[in-house]
Structure formats: structure tokens, C-alpha cells
Amino acid sequence: xxxxxxxxxxxxxxxxxxxxxxxxxxxxxxxxxxxxxxxxxxxxxxxxxxxxxxxxxxxxxxxxxxxxxxxxxxxxxxxxxxxxxxxxxxxxxxxxxxxxxxxxxxxxxxxxxxxxxxxxxxxxxxxxxxxxxxxxxxxxxxxxxxxxxxxxxxxxxxxxxxxxxxxxxxxxxxxxxxxxxxxxxxxxxxxxxxxxxxxxxxxxxxxxxxxxxxxxxxxxxxxxxxxxxxxxxxxxxxxxxxxxxxxxxxxxxxxxxxxxxxxxxxxxxxxxxxxxxxxxxxxxxxxxxxxxxxxxxxxxxxxxxxxxxxxxxxxxxxxxxxxxxxxxxxxxxxxxxxxxxxxxxxxxxxxxxxxxxxxxxxxxxxxxxxxxxxxxxxxxxxxxxxxxxxxxxxxxxxxxxxxxxxxxxxxxxxxxxxxxxxxxxxxxxxxxxxxxxxxxxxxxxxxxxxxxxxxxxxxxxxxxxxxxxxxxxxxxxxxxxxxxxxxxxxxxxxxxxxxxxxxxxxxxxxxxxxxxxxxxxxxxxxxxxxxxxxxxxxxxxxxxxxxxxxxxxxxxxxxxxxxxxxxxxxxxxxxxxxxxxxxxxxxxxxxxxxxxxxx
Length: 599
Description:
Creatine Amidinohydrolase, single chain, Creatine Amidinohydrolase, Chain A, domain 1, globular
């Protein structure tokens, strides 16, 4: 069935392309800051394709259009692109060209590639510029064609900004500026241009609400040895926040004035810039007049290593969050088949439990509540128009988290609602085995997540199954739920970050199995890196667990576990009961005692 609405939008876009002399037009999933989640104002790719996933790039030309996305979204993209005329390009699949390779093959000498330069990173823009201009292709990057076609485009957000108290942040704004200036000094940089929103919020100990689930405010920051300038929408600042910034000697300028400020800077400054988070449009301005020191944002690494007060607050918050998730599982198991529960009402009930926690601010991402085959789509989201009714059979996968004054949480459990197949039990048990093996990882300092990733995948690889995503990512502190540079993954491509696992870094641990049309399983805890013993071989490292939510023993088939894995499961469940039981009602406590029994 044809999707006339999307087809008509593409017709209008192609007319605008003709008008300005653009042959191919690039629409990424990005805002001006390369944020993972974007406000409605920036969802041009979604507007022109109908694809709602959080990652994807649309390329449009006169004869066609293509959308590139990763393995998490293949099933969803197939469904949402149906009838649009847009071809799906499955990233990293054998024989599928990258966007750069596609443009190199398809664009002819004399043609022009167009895009809005503020939503394309400088690293991507420079890569395209290098490969395409060599072939005689021109690039037009001051080209926001979406604005010409999108008649009812939402306005830029400007939510209220607030200050994180010192007792919650653990480190003052002045101390953080000093740390960053120290890195600038080592790089002989006299300026630092920062456009990454969560880094700016962390550096200044402020938060905002301009991106759904991410407590960030649209802003830029320019730092020198003696001055710190924040470019932000004035209407987002209360009198209290203005006083705070003034007391801390932070100069405030309007968000829209950042480009003119950069153009007025004295020439030949040595400016530190991270190409991953500086848009191509700003990079071109800086590159034309200054010496660029191209390194990763120092704020990213500093932010990733949580300080002792942050870790203390996180442990308290994760305990409360784990209690809410455990109560949710109890409610679901005791009411399935008795109440009319859907994917949506289940997610709503879990959110209700989180809202009862005094420190709760908002969800840390839209809850994924996915029943049976829906769970095979890694980032499925139930809607009022399309959702499943839960029955006392099969599995419900719930991936959720909260933003709290004291931490950001992320946890997944796959819950048995009734009879499941032996295949499901096998897949669940081996997923649990991988999660538990990673929990008990021990390594010499200097390892990255690439060294450890096999621990989570080994049991699944042995039966010829893999999951097409990383095993884990860093988690922000009252910030973005996905944070770098630390991660757990085996496969890296150019531009991806890889970092030594440092004491105080947190990381998710979330192996899974995804069988299209059948079922999806994911089990996720959050871990914190800590030091183990130090001896003649060096400094050993290990993980401490923050998440304490039971696994579902109804889906565990002990014969698939090694003796060590079985011991790990019993150890974890013993800790879950010890951590949570004092906070539960007698009925809940008895249920949890059985759910965490030794096997």
C-alpha cells in the first residue's frame, strides 16, 4: 500500500532541490549538537521518511531515496518505510555500501550534494568533502531545505534551566573549569569550543529540559584561560540561574549569536575542537581563520569518571529504582490474566512506581515494553495505534530507566508471563550466562570494553547466535542515558570511541537474543568499574553491581549453565534478596524469596 503523504513530501523536497541546484540531499538524525535524541524541531529525517527510529540517515535524489540504519532497527524500518518508495540500506550487512561509498558511486562530476551544515558533524562533513570534491562534486552546506517544505515545523525548545546543588554534583563548577583548562594547557590551546550539550551541563553544574528524557539545554560554550562564555536562549534562564552564572563569572550570550561571535574572534587562535560534536558549519568557520587542535572533548572523559559523591548518590538511587522494577515484576506476575494489561499500561504502571520515588524527575528514555515477537525489534515502542495485549503466555521485555536527583538509571528485564518454549528457555539462560560472566569480569588495568565483550557473547556465539549491537554503554549522572567514551563492544569502525576502563566509570551490561517474528530477550544491569588487587603483575580491575532486580527463574534451564555460571546466578539472587527484602511487604517478600531461591 502506497504512503502518499511521505511521497508528496519527497516530491516537494525534490522541487526545492531543483530550485537551489542540489542533486542529492542528505538528512541525518541529528540536532545542532549531535545529540542522540532530538527535539521535534530537528526531526526532518522522520518527517520526510516516516521512519521513527533514533538512528538513521535519509539520502534523496531525483529518481529515488534511501535510508541507512543499523541492526537495531531493520525490522522497524522495513515496516515504516513500506509504501514510501524509500529503499532500506542495512548498515554493516555484507554488500551494503556506506553512505559515502554510495555517493561516490552515484554522484557524477558537476553535481552538488546539499545538507544543513549545522546538523552534520565536522568529521562526517570533512570525510564527504574529501571524497566527493576529488570527483568533481560540489558541496552546499548552508542548505536547510526542510524549513522550506515543512510548513508546520515545531519551534525550537527553550525549557527552564536549573542548578545542580554542590552536594549532588560533588565537584564545583570552578574545579571542573580548572580541570578542563589543564587539558587545554597541555594541548597549548587558548580556546575551547564546546557544542556537546551533556558536557556543557556537566561542566557548569546546570541542567535543562530541551530534549525529551535528556536534562539538557540548547547551548554552546567557549572557554579561554580567563573567560567562560555560555551561549543559551535567554528565555530559558530564571533569575536564580542568572545569579548563579554571574556569581561564577560565566558570561551569558544569546544562543543564536554563537556564529557571529566565532567570526569576530581574533585570527590564528589555537582552538581545541572535537570533530564528532562540532558541526560542519561551525568547523568550516573556525578552520578558515584559526589553528584547530583536534582532540576528543576533555569534558567527555572527565564526566565519565564519577566522583565519590556521585557514586554514593547513584548507589542509593539504583537501589530505589531496582525496588520499583522488582515491585513491577511482582505486580505483573500476580495480575497477568486477571487484569486487562497491554504493553502500554504495563509501562505506565512501572512509571507510576518510579514517580513515587521522591528524587524522580522524569524517564531517562521512552520505556520499551515489548511482548513476544515485538521484542525482536531492539528499540520497539508501543503506541496507542499499535500495541499488544498481554496474555498469560510468552515473554514481556521491559527496558526502562529514570532520571533522578542523584542518578540516571537503565535496566532491562525479560519477564515470563506463562508457558514458553524450550528454545526460549535456552536463549534466556544463555543470555543470563553472558550477563553474569561480564558481572564477574576481572582484568588488568589498560583493557577497554573490546577486551571484555566476549564474556557476554561467548555462550551465544557457541550456538551460532549474536546480537547486532554493543554489550554496554556508559550512563550519565542526571544526564544522557547513553554516555561515552567507555563501552563494551567487540566491533569498532572508524570514528567510534574506545576508552580504557577507569575506576569510577559506569557501564551497562546487556546481552540479548532477537529472533524476528518470534521473541526477543535482553537482561541489563549497570556496573561500576573499581580496583581489585595490585601485585607484581599490575593493577587488576573488576566491576561492582548497581542494579539489583531478580532474573526470571521460570526461563532458566540449569542444564545450559556451567557450574560457575550457576554459582554466579545464586550469588546475585542472594544479594538481590538481601538488598530489597527489608523494603517489601510480607507478600512481596515471600514472592521475592521464591524468585531468588538457590538453584
